[in-house]
Amino acid sequence: MAGFKVRFLPQDKMIEVPENTTILGAERMAGLEPDAPCGGRGVCGKCNVTIELDGKSEVVSACQTIIDRNMVVDTGRTETKHRILTDGVCRRVEVAPAVEGAEKGYLMAFDIGTTTIAGYLMDGGTGEQLTIVSTVNPQFQFGADVIARANYVLENDGKRMQEVVQDALNELIEEACKNAGISTQEILLAAIAGNTCMHHLFLGISPRSLVIAPYVPEIKDGMILDAGECRMRIHPKGKVMMLPNIAGFVGADTAACMLAVDFENLEPLTLMVDIGTNGELVLGNQKKIVTCSTAAGPAFEGAKIGCGMRGAKGAISHVRVEGLELKLEIIDAETAEGICGSGLIDVIALLIQYGFIDCGGGFAELEELKDEVAVANSWRLQTRDGKPVFLLQEADGKEGRPEIFISQRDVREVQLAKGAIAAGIRMLIQKMSVKTEQIEQVLLAGAFGNYMDTESACMIGLIPYELREKIHGIGNAAGEGTKLAVLNGGLFQDICELVKQVEAVDLAQESEFQDMFVDELEFANAEER
Asked: Model's pTM, two decimal places?
């Protein structure tokens, strides 16, 4: 079969690919880990590249373009340092690993998130944390969310999806051991937590049961496996501990969060929220615990947002008002390349607060602006392709500064995401037969919860407004809970038993959920017009 040679810039990497290979497929073959939030369906525009054809440059969609000749492809991408949250709430426990002899070596704990992976190396005898390592989850090249990745595996060979994440963990192990001055062979036990889909993909288990009703995991119980079964390059007789899943889309990462905050012994009525492509919600205390997962989608990760990006260099992370001016907080840069989830929440909150959008999410007409901040920034309300947008940064061709704006479609994506989470919270409150104001504390877990402004989150209705004074960030609680499990075998057994007592609510089976979701699409704090 004939093949074609492809040279990728600026990576300066040459490979040969067979006929009918897309540029996106070739990027994956070359190990470039391209960004493809929609999983290659041609709807997000994030995988665009530049190719040379007949002496002219042309921007094309990598996932939709078949390589039919030798070509040079400029991906326009250089290595980007992403902002990855690794710290979280922690508590001291007795060091007593579940595996005999592990106290004589070293331990590792991994939180495999849909977007990022965090790893922690610890002394098996003292429990001392020696180093923290992290990376972007390389599975993002197959889709931004768990559904896209699950569908990719069902339509293609899932082995590659498994291998890239296992390879990523092995690279983190090597990095951690190098930092600590030890051998990878000295690690005797590793623990892993992730959502149910990440759990299945890591183990090479088909995710079919997660995308077809009744959406149940193939495996829920916690397990301790031989390292070789997971291709983990640690001690030849080392073990890998997999934390238990709770339900189809409430996974081991939520179980780890519950372990981190000692949920089974909590007295205050507590709402724990982990917002990502899925929003995992837990409500309860030591008497009763209910949980659910909402399909928030990848909007808060920057996907499906026209100018969206992950929380990396050049991302607008926060937007605030000083006097009459809008100020952009940009990660490690003077000018912005896009906007990430926390910045997006701030912008939508400001649009609500100053009357730029109404309760239905529609943009105001210029003559409808009344607040002095809105009037001073009325020039930001513009149109692109005949549709309204809110301009955040003007383009400057000489300086290579891109135009960044929020479109009506972006507002709708936020409404869908926040509506799903807010409706999920309402459903759990109903299941517990309590009132919103009876919730005594709200614990925000995960990177998005850590970086977002809680006032903005409550302004847009992501979290009930009446709870805004009760919110506390707990950081990467999934990572901290996984550390506790690897340090103390008794705690691992405890969380394996606790998850069996948790009532998992399947929102798809709740007749009232759709009505709740529709109600929560509105911005209750915005003006009616």
From this structure: 0.84
